[in-house]
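Hi V.,

You were right to ask for the full record rather than a summary. Here it is.
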Amino acid sequence: MEANDEVSTAISTLLSTPICTILPEQPEEYFPPCVDEKKPKLGDLYNTIEEGVQFYKDYAKHCGFQTRLGTTKRQKRNAEVFTLRRVLCNKAGTREEYKDKKTDRVRLITHGKYKVTGFHEGHNHILASPSSMLFMKENRKMTSIQKTFVVKAARLKMGPVKAFRGWKELTGGYSNVGATETDFKNFVRNMKQYIGLSDAQMVVDNFSQKKETCSTFYFDFEVDEKQCLSGLFWADTISRKNYALFGDMLSIDSTFRTNKYDMVFVPFTDVDQHKRCVTVGAGLLSHESIEAYTWLFKAFLDAMGGCAPKAIITDQCPSMKPAIEEVFPNTSHRLCMWHIMKKLREKVDAYLWQDEDFKKRLNACVWNNHCEPDEFEEAWANIMIDYDLVDHPWFSSLYEIKEDWVPAYFREIFMAGIMRVTSRSESENSFFDRFLTPHATLVEFWMSFESAMDAQHHKQSKLDSENKHSTSPLKTPVQLEKHACKFTRMQLLRTSRMHYVQQCTIVAWWTYMLRTAQRYILSAT
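Predicted structure:
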């Protein structure tokens, strides 16, 4: 107990004793280490006032402090000519504090030269360390190459943060960037502010310049009563050429919004010789109405020289059907099965959606383009009865318009594989989703769209090159396959070869069976 009392007494004494901390004496001024070549000197001459100011800023950048401009004097006879320019450290204080010092001055002398008449080297604060210099304002200047990189990155759906990180990886470290993440963000902000209310006008002006340089580029636009852009359509040279080659069937999808104004993006899609989706035109609409789609389809028809497609497939947009009937009266209009079947999950109960047998039977019923209409109706009726869906409103509405979306009712119409391949619309949506963002201005939207088209055209050129310079090994010794390899596209050859090899296998099997039976009969006799 006595030992504990002694410890408690010692602690109390220590806590009650005042503590005095002695810090090392701080110097009145700090002098930055700098080589003589980068240090201003009294009497130095410069050709312009800007040259002298920039030399001092470079000196500050090297030494680790920031600058600001002080007193400025101009000629009385010519106000555009400076006679005195004072450059200060940003921590120099008020004018009363530094007026007695020989601060850094650049004064005009005869013959149009500028001379350093005052230079004070000391500072009243600690200078920045090498590790913190990159955060100083003097060291944070985005170059024109970095700004171009940010703009190009936006075309790939990369924001300023990802662009900053990408530039850091390219240069090898944060210290080599020369700017901060905030600087990249501020540049994008300033760019959007510069675009401002001139967004639509800048896009139209860009289209006008493209039209002047390339006569085959087509565009049209309309404005509303407030002189705001309400509709825009465009098609470049390659798109118009693709439509001339593959324009029998046209797919129109307007299911997603891709800009800050919620304008509806409407791409026109065909299928090329490689069984790939190609965009043959695109439009933007401020609202989905019959009048808006009528104007858009007329612009498309005018761009394609009045050549209407034989068949059009769309989603269930109620405004499209009357517009198509007016602009394309001789064109067959069908609904996209992918958009219809995509709604199945939200239209049926959860237990029915998890029933794999139900989904398997329904898909086999609606996707079978080899069955007759009466066979479809019988299979449909059985599914509705077995799963108690006879009075279901959604299925009843689909059955009423079955001629518009079930392949059994229009097998004679050429649909270029769109109705039979469920992933066509999904792949087109996914393709544009890789480039377009919902918060982009129209200028940013157009740049991203151009990047998407470049990727699409590059893929098409790559497939063309593979077909011209690539050969496929033969699977059978039949001359017909060898002849087909010379004139058939690789994608089509893979599909047709699979069926051809199956047929050859069946023929070979029957030939083998007949020869075996013949030998058996001869030996028996």
